[in-house]
Amino acid sequence: MKNRFKKNEILRCFQSKMNENFEGYYDLDGNKIIVQGLLDDEDAEIKIVKPGLKVSFGIIKDLIRKSPYRVSDKFNNNGELDHCDYDYEVKFKQILLSKLFDRDLKYISSELENYRNKVFLPSKIVNDELQIGLYKRNSHEVLPYNFENSVVSVKMNDCLKFIVNILNEDLKFIKNSVKGIYLRGENCAFQAGILVSQLFSIDDRVLQKFINNGIDSLFAYLNDSGNSILVKDPYFFTEKDYSILKIKETDFKLRPESFFQLNSHIASKIVDKIKDYCRNLDFEIVYDLFAGVGFLSHFIEGSHRILFEITEGAFKYSKKDNTEFYYGDIDSTSISMNKNSLMIVDPPRKGVGDKCIDIIREFTPKHLIYLSCNPISLKNDLSKIDDLYDLVDITGFDMFPRTPHIETLTFLKRR
Fold first, then answer.
1. N or C: which end of the chain has fewer CB within 10 A?
2. Beta-strand pair 215-221/189-196
3. SS3 category, 94
């Protein structure tokens, strides 16, 4: 079979639609043409860049009829949604979730500036200078970073600029080994990590420059996992091995391996919702699976907590009162659970996994709270326990504004 369209072919298309990834597309006689940057119900002249038998890809050459919700003709190839109105984005996400779970539900919007408390930025060498940036959508190409990026604080941007400068000057001997920069923190205290292919040392003079620029915790790390965001076996140059994030007037000390919600504004809203769920509930124990530092269960007062986390060191600075800790993969966990309990799960995008589903089905905790960064895997997991639990509430949160990602919190009660 031949492709219907040819590469570089120009088409005039009408009445675009938009999928769950905020990708615009046209349906032409059974052939779908995906065009990044299109909004719902727009007419455009497009150029085919990758023809296929059933799915082709194009780019916008000219917008003929624009959506009233478009605020910019420019589309950011790093996947951001700055080209559409934010209220429209929130409404579209709310509709997507409502359709997926077949119920009308709330979707909580986010602050759009200074909300992000952590970044990882890949690096590259250009004209013998190290640069950092963001990955182009569906690509390993690194696009230059904008140091006026408003999703992080001015101070965080200043720290990133300082790190790039010092890697090109005092630490230029390692710049060809650098793969990316990790930075987490808020206000005037940050923890920085340098992803490298080979560990190195720095002298006290250079280390003091980091400290003077608000970076009071510094480490280097190697990573063979293929996921640069995950930190493993950090080598610290400073005595301090943690950063501090404040949620609801509570300081959380975080080692770099520790997972934590990157949007402090939305994290606070999620905590409020969990506290609402738990008000007047009767249970003896809280099981917190995929716990990170135990953030989601931290604010549940008066209950014994049992935390499970695969990342060693995540609990080093966690609240110890009335709490037990288990390290290791949930798939290898062997523990007898109290049925009169609340279970909280906050798994990675792939979902909780079959072993965790088996644990839920075997011990049937009285209440279940499931926080998900992937509504598709969430729906799949809930379908495996829907004979045992009623879905009491589901709420969407815009943890990642100006991106297609959706955070979803659900509360279930045993029948």
1. N
2. parallel
3. helix
